[in-house]
Amino acid sequence: MPLKAACTCTEGGFSRTIAIFVSRGNCLKMSNTEPLLTKQEITELKARAHHLNPVVMVGQKGLTDAVIAETRQALHAHELIKVRVFGDDRMERIAICEALCAATGAQLVQHIGKLLVLFRRRTEDDADTAQ
């Protein structure tokens, strides 16, 4: 079931409200209460992500449950990942980016063209299950 989202992405110290629209017309609102990254952290993460290759690809079927699950797994393993979003519609790519961030609890570090860089800090629970 593809997801579509409508919200604005803010980078800076502000919290944001994200609305995700499911194809049946249901709307789920989520607020991101986790503190956003500082400019210095974003710069450091961009430098770390420069050499990375995309580990998740969003194809023509859009944002599916399988893509979200794969993104969660990659974030669990690596914290910092690149995602490639295929498609020529820029607004659709932005909506997919925001829905993916909301669904996985990740923060957008960088969005250039069809590439996204996502970051989610490991929690203590994640560290315990990784070992």
UniProtKB/TrEMBL annotation:
It holds the Pfam family CRS1_YhbY. The keyword RNA-binding applies. It comes from the Bacteria. PROSITE patterns: CRM. GO terms for molecular function: RNA binding. InterPro entries: RNA-binding_CRM, RNA-binding_domain, RNA-binding_YhbY, YhbY-like_sf. Keywords: RNA-binding. This is RNA-binding protein, YhbY family.
